[in-house]
Protein 1
Amino acid sequence: MMREKTVFGPIFSRRLGSSLGINLLPQEGKVCNFDCIYCECGWNKDGLADRTIPSAKDVREALETKLLECSGNGTPIDSITFSGDGEPTLNPEFPQIVADTLALRDRYFPSAKVSVLSNATMAFKADVFEALTRVDNPIMKIDAPTSEKAALINRPVGRYSVEEVIASLERFKGDFVLQTMFLKAPSFCTGDWVSEWMSIVRRLRPREVMVYTIDRETPMKGLSKYTVEEMRSLVQPLIDEGYKIQIKG
């Protein structure tokens, strides 16, 4: 299972290039309201040792130190990315941390994008939504077209409604990136699953869709990945309709 410092990398991201990561959650634990069967951070139950949430001050200081280091040694940064050990928007100071990050980005790496990888469950909150609209790439996850199917793949902690998440994402008016994991398993990403998911894409009309598959060890055993060609075949109707689809194997 992966565990990250408050600021880590930069690492090469299949989707974002040279990505400097920001982990707004415990460095030696995991905090998430999903418990996805494919999560590279492992199961939630295995991340209980550390519950320390970094403050906005902690993040700002760690980020400025790393940006100064990267600037000094000529390390390129394409994206400053909120990811890490769980759902970043669960940090109670997320809006302030976004504001600080944008200011530091403008000072040290003005050409870098600021990206947030999120399961979109907190987007209904006014301050979180406003912060997400300020970053370059609000990358919002919908892995399953119904709440019942999300229970199989995302295993939400507490109440979760795909329809309510869709309603939150409609407020972006298409100015966001939709991210979806495609898993090859008997119940996943085939037939009705894909057609129902494509209906959601058509309803939300995101500026870009990121379709990807597993790349690292998963906590649930027996999962298998799609090839890029297989995923392209599944989403071909959307490509034909003019949607910008990024497919990563």
Protein 2
Amino acid sequence: MSRAIKIENFDPNGVGVHNGHFIGLPFAEEDAQVIMIPVPWDLTVSSGTGTHTGPENVLKSSYQLDLYDDYLAQAWQMGIYMQEIDQTINASNIKFRPDAEKYIMALESGQEISKELQEEVIQINTACEEMLRLVQSKCAAILEANKCFGIIGGDHSVALAGIKACANKYKAFGILQIDAHMDLRHAYEGFTYSHASIFHNAMQVEQVKKLVQVGIRDYCQEELDFAKEHKQRIVTFTDSNISEQLFTGSTFATVCEQIIDSLPEQVYISFDIDGLMPTYCPNTGTPVPGGISFNHAKYLLKSLVEKGKKIIGFDLCEVAGIGNSYDGNVGARVAYMLCNYMGKSQNLI
């Protein structure tokens, strides 16, 4: 059955059918133009756990969403599909997470790190490499089919797979990072691919010409120094900087212009849910006071598209896992918004 026939037979006003598809949409991977890749991974998280079931939570919560988008009314018709959770990745996360927790606990309690724990860190780094290779190959296959991809994490470390996949297709692009944290630490806690090191690793990708960080409000001196060292490539709009502009008479539209003007024409979006105010993500692993609202994020993305920027891929990470229905609901709405605006930027709508 073609996508056109599926659209004709689908009732966008009906009940969200629990058919295993995002928002209960009728599309299969073959006829969808936007494919989401769920990555059940939270191996290196250093605070709240459970993010590995975040993708499942987003999917299950999506059935409660209405399809109408007040900016892109028929966006769903381009076809959106979420792949099934890769159980190989899930099994690896389950296998190595206890070792990671034991190691992190030893660090936090000031214990001497034994040779055994050091060897476990090596195994964990290897597991992370294997996960990233697998996810990158999934992203690459979608791009090769001339379709769009979005990664649904899992912790923020999974974003590197999408960034590297884009680097193999595009000679130059920028990253728009919405986040409470800079994530610029070098191998945080000894984990090469730590969730707190994602953008330190991304900056090693030469095709990434600009990293524009928005909503940042929790960082250390090491990260600040790294950003200053790479000031030609990293632009940071801290939460306090944005707030000060708004408090002294600037509009958020003006702030968005500054953000968008800092980006090249092709943009990868990395959206950590904790970039939003904690009221939208109360159970995420590392919530931080402050942040932007859902509507701030929506306006920023809408403005990005209207300025003619092309969204070449995205990730949404750190959504709390199963048992946190509100977090899942917000996560599903952000995922839908990212899909829609990416589709619009690539003339799929």
Protein 3
Amino acid sequence: MKNLIEPLDDITLSGFRFFKSLSDEELKSLNYEKTCSSLKKGSIIYKEGSRLTGFYCIVRGIVKVYKTGIDGKEQIIRFARKGDIIAYRSLLSQESACTTSKIIEDAILCHVPYKTLLNLIEKNSSFALAMLRIVCAELKEANEYITDIAQKTVRERLAEILLLLKDSFDLDADQTLQISLTREELANTVGTATESIIRLLSEFKQDKLIDLQGRKIKIINLAGLIKVANLTNNRS
């Protein structure tokens, strides 16, 4: 990892939902073998094609996980936050990293070695099942994204992404998304040109669905966004 500030040895991973099935002894071993570090915004955690030595638990901050196309354009796969883990799929399949991850809000991450993960999977069937469910959930999200790209308009996809960001990061007291993204990052999440996102955000504002304050997006009409997104199920 780049731009490390200092190790934070007193952090515990006991509160992560992924580790709820571990015994006290296993949690003690996990916390002993992890390595935690602070990273500044803009730091690269790992790059596509690199060999991973373990996975990462996000204790604080926000991380974007993305793939890079032939033309160098990013396709953002997900935004990970406190309580999430990243880099586990490539690790489990013993492949090179299939994505790049970058800090977009100052963060604290804990690295858990591959041998520790493998040992927990081999000895704790409940934990192994939990990891399988995580991978299946990721596959479901990928399938839904492919369907959206093929069948939905850019307008529908942008509305859906805003709803997903609301679900993942919630709204503050002013109904503003608690994640600040550039227009390019939004475009790379939706899968379109930055110019299209700028135009559609302006249209959403004119339609009184949202309000814009720089990078901040305030949700004004949640029901309207759900309608525009053309969702088959209510994600609000």
